[in-house]
Amino acid sequence: MARKSRKNITINSEPEIKTTFCIRTARYIRLSVEDSDNKGNSIENQSLILDDYIALHPNMKTVDTYIDNGVSGTTFKRPEFQRLIDDIEANKVDCVIVKDLSRLGRNYLDMGFYIDKYFPEHKVRLIAINDNYDSDAPKSTDSMLVALKNIINEAYALDIGKKIKTQARQAMREGQYVASTPCYGYLKDPNDCHKLIVNPETAPIVKIIYEWFVGGMSTNEICLQLVARNIPTPSVYGHNKGYLSSKKVGCGKWNTRTIQRILCQEVYTGKLVQGKTDTVEHNQLPQDKSKWIVVENTHEAIISQELFDKAQARTAEIKAEHAKKPLNPYTENIFRGKIFCGHCGRPLHRNRHIRKTTADRYFFTCLTNTRYERGACESGSIYEDELLSVVLESLKVQAGILIGKKNMLADTISDADITMMQESKIKRLKAFISKNQNFLSSLYENLVNGIITPDEYQEMRKSYGDKISEAVRSIHEIENKKKVLENEHRRYLEMNNTIEKLLDSGKFTKEIVDKLVSRIAIYNGKRVEITFNFENEFESEAAANE
Questions:
Q1: What is the pLDDT of residue 140?
Q2: Long-range contacts of range 453-457, CB-CB < 8 Å, 24 or more positions apart?
Q3: CATH class of 2-161
Q4: pLDDT at position 212, please?
Q5: Short-list 26, 27, 44, 22, CA closest to 35
Q6: From 14-28, 84-98, 227-241, 484-498, the region with the lowest mean pLDDT
Q7: 423 pLDDT higher than 90
Q8: Rounded CA gap, 45 and 31, in Å?
Q9: What confidence category does residue 225 fall into, taking pLDDT thresholds of 50, 70 and 90?
Q10: Segments of the chain assigned to CATH 3.40.50.1390
Q11: Topology of the domain covering 186-320
């Protein structure tokens, strides 16, 4: 019976043999929040269904499993789905298998794009087991049924989403706290997750921030005072207590933006103000203030309404004073994202000296000591015009080196001996592939005739398939190496032309800096370290070609 079962599976399910003689299969699993109570859609159940299907199709080889847990199917901006797309683009996947089409997605238009256009263009087979859909064996009615199922799936997701949103807004009107984490200064009541209670550890920090600000202290000075007292930031505190799961907690230093957010939160007066944003097309957008949901006396206040109003009044005064200042726009910062302090590693801040009779003079300086922590950095700084001169002189030196690298790459690409060796190796590999394809083709006939057992068939089939796959990969590596060298030669040529134009004109632009400069570090005493985009690359390219 075992021989008969294996034989039937081989005859009925054997797909058209591809170059690699195995179907590199990606298992995709998705569980959304609304599916969490549906055991049929659990991650474990989906995985079992996919495993059972693959077990019945021995030509399928699982290359990876992609699991999006707690992500809606109405959007395709899912981490694991995007990783799957990256692997498809890298030609690592021949087939995508899902429990049903709703696991792939619930957006009718996007589903149509992937099923009808993207997967076929990338020669990727799609199998939805419970929907009995296989893109390699389409039926005449498949396109209509798939379109109908996608419409139904999207309608279901929209209906569920609408119900969840309606339920959440009703909870807001009833004075329930609906956010997943408590705001700084409060904790969630252990007996009622929709109620806030005062956090005795952080509430005093909130109160003193308001008192300092109303007393005339700047938000920048408040940051320095909190750092000096070793008070953890809200993100660090939440992460340490375990209710903030994100590993990104910033630098651990207070900043003015955090202080400003605390100073505008009316929740500290004992009222809940929720519904400030709405989700439209998967993007959170601010709601008009008239649509905010405000409920008084829902929890214990940390500050008085009077203190909160004074803080808002001072904030308005500061904004009004700032608005009175004449607007003199900054010139473009061509070094944005490229220039850092060599001591603490933070990005340098660009500022200017305003002069009455001559043009303003711009300079870069480190703000660590004045904004984060006094005495924490040696504070590198430099004038922009001085930095431009340093970069220009350095590029003059690099120009000759760049030309040499470009010429060496050109010699490598055009070397007749290397080209002949590559072509000879490719020819041998193709002959090896052809020989093993012939061996592989005869295996199934030997199995049917009883010359070899099913176990021998599977073992030999895998062996020949692996040899062919390795040879195909070797051919791709040889061809790709030459392409990489050609692309790098073209890039060096473009950089060389860019430097020549810059040296002729002496004028920097943001485009030129982005193309040539990787990073600039400024140290105390105006010492400058420049890393160019073309440095330390040629050596690795030459080694890869040996």
A1: 42
A2: 454/2, 454/3, 454/6, 454/7
A3: alpha beta
A4: 96
A5: 44
A6: 14-28
A7: no
A8: 11
A9: very high
A10: 2-161
A11: Hect, E3 ligase catalytic domain fold (3.90.1750)
